[in-house]
User: Which sequence fits this backbone?
């Protein structure tokens, strides 16, 4: 036995390996169900890429109005390098014919750019110093019969609940990666396009409402719960944005700190929007039920982990439904798309049936 193994070693060393393109083709085989028009070179859509310069123009205008600047820091240059690298890899993959890899790289590049510009817009809109609307939002909660302080105190007394809600609230980066990867691998290009369009549309509307028209500090800033009520909760729960929000509203933040910028929108709850968006994007896949459970917990966690009012959660759901209905009316979401299996799934199923 040992001799046979030793004899096979030279043969293995001298065996010529297939080129990388052939190895990659085995991992990501061709998807014949996708026509050329479903695999555009510029993804997700040329109009979304065109919206980025418009967003930059709005940012420059707000910088002029507020007198604020931008503290780019070291991470901004790193993010720019990452974007250029991803775009280059996307074009290279498209040139070699691997459209799914190309789309994946382009989607990541688009999201890095959009999120950075979105954070800048968020801070600049808050810098317009619109009075906080916490009193009105808390009053709406009272009309709904929701006692925010009592809810947070109950969560604080249940360590297992804290652990579950904390993990659910922080799960959205992993769901982003799951949605991107799964929809690209399984050729749901139109659904991925709809996902990005929904994300960009709801995000911009949420920033206009929550950073300009109705800015708020949230439950932790408005109710200021006693230390014993929140003693077991994570130190950053719902409080990570309070300092920046107060400084911006008082006109005491001269620059947008890109390295340490955070989301400032309280009303509507964008975590609620994203939870519904993830459930929508993963419908009809094996990830639907796990997504439904985890993202339902995310919505439940927003008052305690995100410091949101109950009315924020409701407004987030309403915002998602309105934008979804409008985009669906214009057939921009790929709702009529038939889910495609893995390219090799049908062959595996046939072999299983034969066995």
Assistant:
């Amino acid at each position: 036995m040992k001799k046979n193994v030793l004899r096979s070693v030279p043969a293995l060393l001298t065996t010529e390996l297939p080129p990388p393109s052939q190895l990659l083709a085995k991992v990501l085989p061709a998807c014949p169900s996708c026509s050329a028009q479903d695999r555009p070179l510029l993804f997700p859509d040329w109009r979304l890429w065109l919206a980025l310069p418009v967003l930059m123009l709005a940012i420059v205008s707000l910088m002029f109005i507020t007198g604020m600047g931008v503290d780019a820091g070291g991470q901004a240059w790193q993010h720019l390098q990452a974007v250029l690298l991803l775009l280059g890899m996307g074009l290279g993959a498209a040139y070699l014919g691997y459209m799914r890899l190309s789309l994946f790289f382009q989607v990541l590049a688009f999201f890095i750019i959009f999120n950075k510009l979105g954070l800048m817009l968020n801070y600049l809109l808050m810098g317009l110093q619109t009075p906080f609307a916490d009193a009105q939002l808390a009053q709406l909660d009272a009309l709904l019969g929701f006692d925010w302080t009592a809810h947070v105190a109950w969560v604080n007394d249940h360590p297992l609940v804290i652990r579950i809600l904390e993990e659910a609230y922080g799960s959205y980066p992993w769901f982003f990666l799951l949605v991107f990867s799964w929809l690209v691998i399984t050729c749901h290009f139109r659904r991925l396009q709809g996902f990005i369009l929904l994300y960009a549309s709801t995000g911009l509307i949420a920033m206009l409402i929550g950073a300009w028209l109705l800015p708020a500090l949230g439950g932790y800033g408005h109710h200021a719960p006693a230390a014993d009520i929140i003693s077991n909760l994570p130190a950053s729960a719902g409080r990570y944005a309070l300092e920046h929000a107060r400084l911006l509203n008082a006109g005491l933040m001269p620059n947008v700190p890109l390295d340490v910028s955070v989301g400032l929108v309280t009303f509507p709850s964008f975590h609620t929007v994203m939870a519904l968006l993830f459930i929508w994007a993963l419908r009809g896949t094996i990830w639907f039920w796990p997504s439904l459970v985890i993202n339902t917990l995310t919505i439940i966690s927003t008052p305690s982990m995100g410091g949101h009012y109950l009315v924020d959660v409701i407004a987030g759901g309403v915002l998602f439904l309105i934008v979804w209905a409008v985009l669906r009316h214009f057939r921009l979401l790929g709702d009529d798309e038939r889910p495609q299996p893995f390219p090799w799934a049908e062959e595996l199923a046939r072999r299983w049936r034969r066995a």
